[in-house]
Design goal:
This protein has about 100 residues and is mostly beta strands. The protein is built from one helix and seven strands; from the N terminus they run H-E-E-E-E-E-E-E. The strands form two sheets. The chain has a four-stranded antiparallel β-sheet, with no helix packed on it. A hairpin with a 2-residue loop joins strand 6 (about 80-85) and strand 7 (about 90-100). Residues about 1-10 have low confidence and may be disordered.
């Protein structure tokens, strides 16, 4: 058993899929959708393109299957951001576009 396969087995225990944001671009509030293979805490982080962390929120006990979460983008400047979702050792990410009015 290689160390790499052991890491993959751990990561597969907390699978995240179908991460999306709508509407995207967002001006103030949006919804985050993601699917989990089992109940877990999910941490969302919003980074700008330089890697600066702007927001971090942990949602406790997200359920198995599709989940919806509110995203408050107020206070963010117009631009492109990265939304990262982390469950255990697994992280997935997508782009977030903010357009202020």
């Amino acid at each position: 058993c290689s160390l790499t396969s052991g890491v993959n087995e751990v990561a597969n225990n907390n699978a995240i899929s179908n991460l999306s944001i709508y509407p995207n671009p967002v001006s103030s509030h949006s919804k985050i959708s993601l699917t989990l293979d089992k109940s877990a805490d999910v941490t969302f982080r919003v980074f700008d393109i330089t890697g600066k962390l702007y927001r971090e929120v942990t949602e406790r006990n997200a359920g198995t299957g599709e989940n919806l979460f509110d995203l408050d983008a107020s206070g963010l400047s117009t631009g492109t951001y990265l939304l990262a979702a982390t469950v255990g050792n697994t992280r997935t990410q997508t782009r977030l576009f903010v357009v202020t009015k």
